[in-house]
Each structure stands twice: as C-alpha cells, then as structure tokens.
Amino acid sequence: MVAAAHPVPGTTADAHAWRASGLSDRCQGVTVLGDGAYLNCGMVVPHRKRPRRPLLPGEEADNAAHRKVRARVEHVIGRMKNYKILRDCRQRGDGLHHAVQAVALMHNLALAS
C-alpha cells in the first residue's frame, strides 16, 4: 500500500509531521519503515548503538536488511523527481501532493486487481 500526506513546512520534525498527518491511523497493522527520526512512532527503525556497547549480531543483520529496503525507497523517490510532470507540480503549491496521491491511488488499485 502507498499513502501520502499533505506536505508540511521544512522546519517541522519528521516524527511530528508523521503524527499530524493522520497516516499513522491509516497504517495500523501495516509494517512501516522509518529512519532514526521516527523513534517511538510505531515504525520499524534501525537499532541504535548504545554508549560503549556494540550492536548485537542480530541487530546488525536487521540494520543491514533495513538499509537495503530504505535505499530502494530513496532511489524511487529520487527517480520520481526526474519526471517532468512531477518537477512541474512542485512549483504549484499543492500540485505535487495531488500528483503523488494520484500515483499512490493507481498503484494501490493495481495491487488490488
């Protein structure tokens, strides 16, 4: 499933934007990956190194798997920014949000069929 929320000002903390977006309610029962900025948000985030203690072997493996998936997501986002229609939408207020919502809806419909 793909879901998108309205954009927030750049100075808004990621965790606050996530909670305010309402997406956390829509994603109940779904595994959501996040980075270290989303601690205590109910997402799967990388394990953090504790002072003077290395990560456990299982935690290292979890972090490696997490990195692989997150890298794929970041590559998709980067690729989407290359599409002219999305580049043009970024310049028109809420245009990008509507374009991403449309792409997410089409993707979800394709998954459901």
From TrEMBL:
Domain DDE Tnp4 span(s) in chain numbering: 4-108
Query: What cofactor does its activity depend on?
Result: a divalent metal cation
Q: Does the keyword Metal-binding apply?
A: yes
The keyword Metal-binding belongs to this UniProt entry's keyword annotation: yes
InterPro entries documented for this protein: HARBI1_dom (IPR027806)
Q: Which GO terms describe its molecular function?
A: metal ion binding
Q: Which UniProt keywords apply?
A: Metal-binding
* This protein's name: DDE Tnp4 domain-containing protein
- Origin species, per record, is Streptomyces humidus
